[in-house]
UniProtKB/TrEMBL annotation:
Role according to the record: Plays an important role in the elongation step of protein synthesis.
Source species: Glarea lozoyensis (strain ATCC 74030 / MF5533)
Biased composition (Low complexity): 70-84
Lineage: Eukaryota, Fungi, Dikarya, Ascomycota, Pezizomycotina
Any one GO molecular-function label of the UniProt entry: protein kinase activator activity
GO biological process: cytoplasmic translation; translational elongation
Protein name stated in the entry: Large ribosomal subunit protein P1
Keyword list, A-Z: Ribonucleoprotein, Ribosomal protein
Classification via Gene3D superfamilies: 1.10.10.1410
Family assignment from sequence similarity: Belongs to the eukaryotic ribosomal protein P1/P2 family.
InterPro entries (alphabetical): P1/P2_N_sf, Ribosomal_P1/P2
CDD domains found in the cross-reference section: Ribosomal_P1 (cd05831)
Comp. bias intervals (Basic and acidic residues): 86-96
A GO CC term assigned to this protein in UniProt: cytosolic large ribosomal subunit
Subunit and partners: P1 and P2 exist as dimers at the large ribosomal subunit.
Length: 111
């Protein structure tokens, strides 16, 4: 991650922690106040558009819970996120078993 991306990420976290809407102007203001000069305005615009209408704290809390939990989180909260993560584990085991069965066929990719 470049210094510009890191600076914008930290600025977005600061704004989210203060419960302030994340906009390109506010991100740029925080970055300039920190004395970081090498951040192009495109980074603040990209981050502002990507985080528009999203709760950054929820994004951080659901990082490791998988795709199903992130979709369930807005309607069901943390309990639904835990249930969705538990439901995904058997599917992962099935995929692993399927991959292992392909290896038993007696030929490989480079045979």
């Amino acid at each position: 991650m470049s210094n510009a991306e890191l600076a914008v990420s930290y600025a977005a976290l600061i704004l989210a922690d203060d419960k302030v809407d994340i906009t390109a102007d506010k991100l740029q203001t925080l970055i300039k106040a920190a004395g970081i000069e090498d951040v192009e305005p495109i980074w603040t615009s990209l981050f502002a558009k990507a985080l528009e209408g999203k709760d950054v704290k929820d994004l951080l809390l659901n990082v490791g819970s998988g795709g199903g939990a992130a979709a369930a989180a807005p309607s069901g909260g943390a309990a639904a996120g835990g249930d969705a993560a538990a439901e995904e584990k058997p599917a992962e085991k099935e995929e692993e078993a399927k991959e292992e069965s392909d290896e038993d066929m007696g030929f490989g990719l480079f045979d």
